[in-house]
Design goal:
about 25% helix; globular; alpha+beta; single chain; 12 strands; about 240 residues; about 30% strand; five-stranded antiparallel β-sheet; seven-stranded mixed β-sheet
């Protein structure tokens, strides 16, 4: 897959701009990148905070017609692993991990978020728009609870355009694993990088806080937690939150 990167100074959101390309029948591999988003979106309806020109905010157009709808969570794994692959080339002092389902952390700070929008009309996916935001050079944040950036972590100022091309190469490698049906490898790599998977931590569900540890992630994306009394429960996205 070859990438065609379209850089914009300002857009409302890269996902919205990328969805316009879908309507225009643009091919797989188109990438919308913006130096600033006026309405950047995150998971759970949150706003993605990013200073102009300081970070990576981009969306990738895919036409993953080989991917079954029941395996669509694999795209979350592909995107999160690609971001981790790229960050791990620069981050050496802290652990790079994936906070389920697809936020990326460095230590206990959030450095990247991913928003995926899929569409389908048959048993396989028609279109996926994968929006990725990575804190690269920003060093001051206003409303985020636990942000970190690559510059804060490494003390280095990065060229965002070069960084995008490097990250896209990481994405291409992980996406090829998916197309080659290397599901077991993707599953193992994703599980091994899960944030807080090796210890009992606090989670909140239905207004109650409890301690549990991660024991698995279902193929459909649900998080499997084992409480201190040994009971295993599965939670879908928005049914549970990490207490951080």
């Amino acid at each position: 897959m070859d990438f065609n990167v379209l850089w914009y100074d300002v857009v409302s959101s890269t996902n919205e701009e990328c969805l316009k390309l879908v309507a225009d029948k643009s091919p797989q591999g188109c990438v919308v990148a913006a130096r600033y988003q006026t309405d950047g979106r995150g998971q759970r309806g949150n706003v993605w905070e990013s200073d102009s020109g300081q970070n990576l905010t981009f969306s990738i157009l895919l036409r993953p017609i080989q991917v079954e709808v029941q395996r669509q969570f694999m795209l979350s794994k592909v995107a999160a692993l690609a971001v981790c692959d790229w960050l791990s080339a620069y981050v050496t002092k802290s652990k790079v991990s994936i906070k389920w389902p697809n936020d990326v952390y460095v230590g206990n700070g959030k450095i990247a978020g991913i928003l995926i929008e899929n569409s389908f009309s048959t048993s396989t996916l028609d279109v996926s728009v994968i929006g990725i935001g990575v804190n690269v050079n920003q060093t001051y944040f206003v409303d985020l609870p636990n942000p970190i950036s690559l510059a804060l972590e490494t003390g280095i100022v990065f060229n965002v355009e070069t960084s995008l091309m490097e990250l896209l190469e990481c994405f291409k490698s992980r996406y090829e694993q998916l197309l080659n049906k290397q599901y077991s490898q993707l599953d193992a790599d994703y599980f091994n990088l899960l944030y807080r998977k090796d210890t009992y931590c606090e989670y909140k569900a239905q207004g109650q806080v409890f301690r549990a540890r991660i024991v698995g992630v279902k193929s459909t994306g649900e998080l499997e937690l084992q409480s201190v009394d040994g009971k295993v429960q599965s939670f879908a996205f928005k049914e549970i939150s990490f207490v951080i």
